[in-house]
Amino acid sequence: MKKNDLILGILVMIVWGLNFSVIKLGVSEIDPLLLTALRFTLATLPAIFFVKKPNVSWWYLIIYGWLFAIGIWGMATWSIEAGLSAGMASVLLQMNVVFGLFLGYFLLKEPLPINKVIGSGIALAGLLLSLTVTDGSVTQLGLMLILFAAISWSLASITVKKAATKQIFAFSLWAMAFAPAPLFLIVYLQSGSDIFVQLPEQLNERVIFSVLFQAYPVTLLGYWIWNRLLVTYPLTTVAPLTLLVPVFGLLGGVLFYQETVGLIKLIAFLCVISGILISFVNTKLITKLKSRYI
């Protein structure tokens, strides 16, 4: 990867990692699903008027939009409001890689090499170990919500594969346009109309910063750079960069919220990250190296 592209990729991972702390800043002031709805409203408007609709079925856009905005980020944001620390949310959301491997195997008949099985086992061990964390950074509801978000991420990835589009940015942008309405509806069904009446009073500088940061640096700019890297380089070159997200997610929690990183949490983190890293290993390359040097 070229130096400038690598720097851009790392900067995106920093922004995505710190985003979990910014989400926590927002949900301390406002309903998590309302915060998510505002994020995707600003992310799609007015940008959608300057990007042509991708040549895919409307159903793919709707399904992906709901999975991405409601399933992934709605639930991830809610998990932080439900007591899951920003750092642990960033780590456990990476379980989408593990879930994606098995969903790909059962739904798409994709191969499941031994390194992916081993890596998934190690990552699942990290997930189970996180259940024993007793410092208050992992709650039962928060854990359920973040795992739902991780599964939604895997299903969203499958939706993209089924759509078979090369216009990834346009696909994401148009799909996100279908997210705000159902999110606002869910908020209304949960809390009634009073939450919207009180919204102007809740829009203080912390909420505004949280919404703007999520909408623009994280969503529009971040995914634009990320999609450009995906088009330019092989997935096996770009994908391992995402392992930096939980690193900066944990660092953000420590720096901004003084979250503790005890031994059990650290081991769980290392298990999840190393398991995912093993899943990315190119088995053909290993075989080639073994035949050459062993």
Helicity level: over 70%
Helix/strand/pairing class, anyone? mainly alpha
Radius of gyration: 19 Å
Low-pLDDT windows of residues = none
For the secondary structure, the number of strands is 0
Major sheet attributes = none
What amount of the residues lies in strands? under 5%
- First-residue to last-residue Cα separation: 29 Å
What is the string of helix and strand elements?
HHHHHHHHHHHHHHHH
Mean pLDDT score, rounded? 86
Based on Cα principal axes, name the global outline. Answer: globular
The count of helical stretches stands at 16
Could you walk me through the main structural features you see in this protein, from its secondary elements to its overall organization?
Helices cover 77% and strands 0% of the residues. The chain is an all-alpha fold. The model has no long low-confidence stretch (mean pLDDT 86).
Chart the SSEs and their pairings.
Layout: H1 3-27, H2 32-44, H3 58-81, H4 86-92, H5 96-107, H6 114-130, H7 140-163, H8 168-176, H9 180-191, H10 194-197, H11 199-202, H12 205-232, H13 235-238, H14 244-257, H15 263-280, H16 283-293
